From TrEMBL:
It is an enzyme of class 6 (ligase). It catalyses: XMP + L-glutamine + ATP + H2O = GMP + L-glutamate + AMP + diphosphate + 2 H(+). This is GMP synthase [glutamine-hydrolyzing]. Keywords: ATP-binding, Glutamine amidotransferase, GMP biosynthesis, Ligase, Nucleotide-binding, Purine biosynthesis.
Amino acid sequence: MTQHQRLLIIDFGSQVTQLIARRLRELNVYCEIHPYQSLDDAALRALAPQAVILSGGPDSVTRPGSPRAPQAVFEMGVPVFGICYGQQVMMAQLGGSVEAGHHAEYGRAFVTPAPGHSGDGIFAGLFAAGREEVWMSHGDRVTALAPGFEVIGTSPNAPFAMIADPARSFYAVQFHPEVHHTPNGRVMLENFVRMAGFTGDWTMAGYRDEAIRRIREQVGGGKVICGLSGGVDSSVAAVLIHEAIGDQLTCVFVDHGLLRQGEAEEVVAMFRDAYNIPLVHADESELFLGALEGVSDPEVKRKTIGRLFIDVFQKHAAEVGGAEYLAQGTLYPDVIESVSFTGGPSVTIKSHHNVGGLPEKMGLKLVEPLRELFKDEVRALGRELGLPEKFIGRHPFPGPGLAIRCPGEITREKLEILRQADAVFIDQIRRHGLYDEIWQAFVAILPVRTVGVMGDGRTYDFACALRAVTSVDGMTADYYPFSHAFLGETATRIINEVKGINRVTYDITSKPPGTIEWE
Ligand code: XMP
């Protein structure tokens, strides 16, 4: 358990709850997200938060049985900040009232100060331009304030857009200060944490020392194996653990036959040669591709791969001579999503095998030194550990690899075509100096053949889709606006250089409503 000052975010299932945590981490504040139903008064007191934020959520507080915060939140004497549904929960639990429906406000709105209020407390520094631009997303609204509260700001459809009970340090807003579309949202969150006494004690150098100490404490003289994928997360986890326990760590690199071109060679060279970390290169492609034969359902693909990964790890753990621990580069977003789909309030979109699919039978204990970190924090930790920039800057690559970029049935032929097309696309992106601007880029091979004409002949080959997105954390994403010249040149190169593809499309879907991967 961390020694830092802790802020608790109670999650009511908003799609943007994680952004609250990210904004706070940027302010060097340590925070944890817990789903509302995992907390009772006792659990809350055990967490001993120094402040609490209540997130937004999809429900209506007017519905009988809708989510509530443990009442102790309001009795612990700590500052509380309610956001959207969180505001409505505060009003419902503290004696105000909320009305359902007919007040929907989605997207941009402007909040003006209530008469006599120009903003102070967590609203200090706002309204410099006379009004604040905010991002709204609500159906219900507050219609009567709880005793002790006053109105600080109003919008056309939310008369109680900003409210405060300064005596108890309770604050609430109807909009979402955590999203980029509320330009001064960060100011409100910063005012809130400073007022709550947070000193900003969460830094990467401090985290590195603490993580090393914790790994030594957990593992003692035991042996650890670490699944290496070549991605940033498992690489940083491996180097960190190696720094903590040296040769007690053996890395296992599982080649499941679903890797990109040249990937296996690169990873092995980096870890064996550059870091001198003991490494087992397990070529298990026959096993994985055999098990995936005939499988086209995305979730079955993930579960199959997740299950086999564990089997392979167990086998190699035994070979390493009695390893007791398995290290994984699990990140905080994986943890939160997994909590959510095993009982949390937000809807499951995809299962991420590195947490949710772990079978109970697995005889290894987990070491997960990145469990508290977001992706950009992992990169910062990687730099702190001296990993080469080209490794830190690598685009994320999913555990199930090319399996989820091959919608429909996976065949060796399709995988080989996909590998070649992907290599051309990434080469194009690098040649044009765009790699670092793009968060993730890849090709998906589509389960459809199309007719083309090349030379004087008819072709009947696969179509593929290029995917490239910008994102901060993979939770939301936008397609990358390549020039038509770039797209045309890339399509020509792929069709000329890759036998088996005769049509190239560009995926211009953002997330949401799409996801980044095709499956
Ligand atoms: P989606 O497709 O959910 O992807 O928008 C968000 C990020 O997660 C990666 N991803 C996965 N990573 N196992 C993983 O380890 C998975 O099953 C998985 N599915 C998606 C995806 O590549 C993107 O970076």
